[in-house]
């Protein structure tokens, strides 16, 4: 039972990975060991596919809402989209005190996209992987934000924007002075650089790893609950109750994690625009 449970958990935590196989050919890894041995140039096809697909769903829904928008009595989709846009606009205005028309749309995109990716965690853990196996795919994860490649890619993109706007708004020398001469006097420049460098690097880590860690833990709990379904009628009923309770609670988690990612992005970009101290 322990061995089968370990295999079950390992299977549900392994991505469908495409890369170079041990014989030199290219294809999908058939084991977790093959996936791990493919190295840097491998691609987690399931994570990439779901992330891009859900991004397209977001674009389609909001585009559809814009097309059917009316000044009269709005429909349900228009009401829903307007509510989200107003919420993000209010949040952005309360945090970002500079002029940049990109920030609010960026925050909106991050919030909705991350929420949709997180939302996939509410799909029963066995449905899609079992269907994928019937189609000949050995593994298939459907929650992109449980893949650190996805969360860190988003975080590093935001980090690149932080560096760009820091240099654009403060100038190259101004950005360097921030790293060397803050918060201590100039003669402690090495200490300042160490402290500010750690603070700077911590920004993408706080974005990507927080999202990954919370969603990975949530997925693990769903998997552990699913193990109870094969342990007898009593455990089946108890597991069903636990799954329902955790799913209801997890709605709060997936929403909160999307909101935190969006808000931290706004905060970090606001700091990049802030030149008052320079």
Report on the structure:
With 278 residues, this protein is mainly alpha-helical. The chain has one domain (46-137, 144-273). The chain has nine helices and three strands, in the order αββαβααααααα. A three-stranded antiparallel sheet has the order 2-1-3. A hairpin with a 5-residue loop joins β1 (17-20) and β2. The termini are far apart.
Cross-sheet strand order for the largest sheet: 2-1-3
Percentage of helical residues? over 70%
Distance between the termini: 63 Å
Q: What best-fitting shape do the alpha-carbon axes yield?
A: globular
Major sheet characteristics: 3 strands, antiparallel
How many distinct beta strands?
A: 3
Mean pLDDT across residues: 91
Low-confidence sequence ranges: none
Question: If helices are DSSP runs of H or I spanning 4 or more residues, what is the number of helices?
Answer: 9
- Sheet/helix structural class: mainly alpha
Cα Rg: 22 Å
- For the record, the count of structural domains works out to 1
What is the H/E string? HEEHEHHHHHHH
Query: What percent of residues are in strands?
Result: under 5%
